[in-house]
Amino acid sequence: TDELDAMGITVKGRPGRFEETIALLRKLWAAEEIDFKGQHLSMEGVTVAPRPSFGGRRPILLGGEVKPVLRRAATIADGWIASSMATPEQIWEHRKTLRTIANEAGRNPDSLEIGKLLYIAIDEDSFVAKERVGDSMKNYYGDWFDVDKFCAFGSPKRCADILQHYLDAGVTTLMVGLAHPDVKELERLHNEVLPLLK
Questions:
Q1: How far is CA 52 from the centre of its chain?
Q2: How far is it, in rounded angstroms, from Cα 190 to Cα 131?
């Protein structure tokens, strides 16, 4: 905070600066050279390379659960990404909020992408799978991380059932993180879990 204040980036000014940054990125991605004049950012004759190849656009998803973040996700971004600790029920509630905000802003709520990262371990022995994903998550997040609540583990059918709950809650982009990625488990995900999803 002290460093940001020293650069003139105040707490009050950060949301506006963030929103201008999104507008700036969109302009940079769409044109070879741009001028930009905002309240916080101003530049002339700037470019970025390489630019996105299709249509000069990349989706911007915002993460967070407070109302201002959800508002930005539904109005100036392309969607929202849920935390690795968001449950299907929480995602469903936030999705309803996002849709309401998008409607009020004149945007098509169906155009919003809803992303979710979910960690997984596949094994017929649920205890073995839980241990595998649990070790990985506790090393990353700490001992407080609730593997039973926030991960998918066990047989392909059990994993698919958990993934399906998130899809049913409105997730459009489900990012599946293998606890200990290897080719064999990736093949099991592709061949035994994904075909069970609706």
A1: 19
A2: 22
pTM above the 0.85 mark?
no
69 contacts 18 by C-beta, under 8 angstroms: no
- Across the strands, what pairs with 117? 175
Residues recorded for the chain: 198
* Sign of the torsion angle spanned by Cα atoms 76, 21, 93, 85: positive
Report the DSSP pairing between strands 42-46 and 34-37.
antiparallel
pLDDT digits (tens, 9 = 90+) for 44-89: 999 888 888 766 678 899 999 899 999 999 999 999 999 989 999 9
At 169 the three-state DSSP class reads coil
Cross-strand partners of 119: 151, 177
Lookup: tokens for 119: 């960690």
Tokens representing 174? 């489900």
Q: pLDDT digit string (tens) for 14-51?
A: 788 889 999 999 888 888 898 999 888 888 999 888 88
Strand, coil or helix: 16: helix
